[in-house]
Amino acid sequence: MNKTTTTHKTALITGASSGIGKALSYQFAQDGYHLVLAARSMVKMQDLADDLQQRFNVLVTVIGADLQTNEGAARLHTDIKARGIVLSALVNNAGYGGFGEFKDTSLDSEMAMMQLNMNSIVVLTKLFLPDLLAMQGKILNTASTAAFQPGPFMAVYYATKSFVLSFSEAIASELEDTGVTVTALCPGPTASGFQDKAELGNSALVKGKKLPTAEEVAALGYRAMQDGRRVYIPGFMNWVMAQSMRITPRNLATKVVKTLTRPVV
């Protein structure tokens, strides 16, 4: 492929093959952004790219990327820069969780989760920041209401989302006079492929409950990013719960989450 340089507003969305990432792709495309979609599922992304290009007349580049590996994020950056693409928005959305008692869960899965949910965000943000500074662009990091407290039965996942929230708020403060904004999107449980991947079907957190759709969460998150909000929690009750955890004693907060997340038959 010949190298071409473009400064048209372009967004990279990781984890774009399903769920909130896929829904965010539609939000960006209908707003005129060209897109770079990155995930492991090339078939799903190509189908999505074809639909986006046909419906919104935008250019969509599909790149296979495994951000669970140590080199995945850096390779993705190298691939994008080799194509002459300059980003004006970075969406760090790729991530997954796991449900179960820590003593029983897979160490390999949790190390990969930490790589994907935390390390890849740091690497991509660091490497693409020169682009974003030049374009006075935007960063959207998908965190979670899990970021506001410890999470029994999902200990590592909750900890990774706490990292995402803290990191996002800190660099948002550093960048506040540069024109670059950073938004941490903190949804509660959402109807997406996340529950299946995390094997959450038997958790009190989601079992028998009507959850907001990925499309609803993406639309709200996209608007929050465009408005430059640092932290956005979709849903009033999610917001109330997150705020209450700030003043709740840590031991009590952990007990509450344990009850809300526990396995149910």
Would you kindly provide a written description of the structure presented here, covering whatever features stand out?
- The protein is of the alpha/beta class.
- It has one domain: NAD(P)-binding Rossmann-like Domain (Rossmann fold, 3-Layer(aba) Sandwich).
- Helices cover 49% and strands 12% of the residues.
- It is built from nine helices and seven strands.
- It has helices spanning 19-30, 42-56, 72-82, 107-135, 155-174, 194-198, 214-226, 236-247, 250-261; strands spanning 10-14, 34-39, 60-64, 89-92, 138-142, 181-185, 231-232.
- Strands 3-2-1-4-5-6-7 form a seven-stranded parallel beta sheet, with helices on both faces.
- Helix 3 packs parallel to helix 4 (107-135) and helix 4 (107-135) runs parallel beside helix 5 (155-174).
- The protein starts with 9 loop residues before the first strand and ends with a helix.
CATH class assignment: Alpha Beta
User: What is the count of helical runs?
Assistant: 9
| Superfamily (CATH H level) name | NAD(P)-binding Rossmann-like Domain
Order of helices and strands: EHEHEHEHEHEHHEHH
Q: Any idea of the CATH topology?
A: Rossmann fold
Which ranges are low-confidence, i.e. pLDDT below 50, for 5 or more consecutive residues?
1-6
The number of domains = 1
Q: What percentage of the residues does DSSP assign to strands (E)?
A: 5-15%
Q: Report how far the terminal alpha carbons are from each other.
A: 54 Å
Radius of gyration: 18 Å
The number of E-state strands comes to 7
Q: What level of helicity do the residues show?
A: 40-55%
Shape: globular
**Structural class of the helices, strands and pairings?**
alpha/beta
* Main sheet characteristics: 7 strands, parallel
Average of pLDDT: 89
The CATH architecture is: 3-Layer(aba) Sandwich
Strands in their spatial order, largest beta sheet: 3-2-1-4-5-6-7
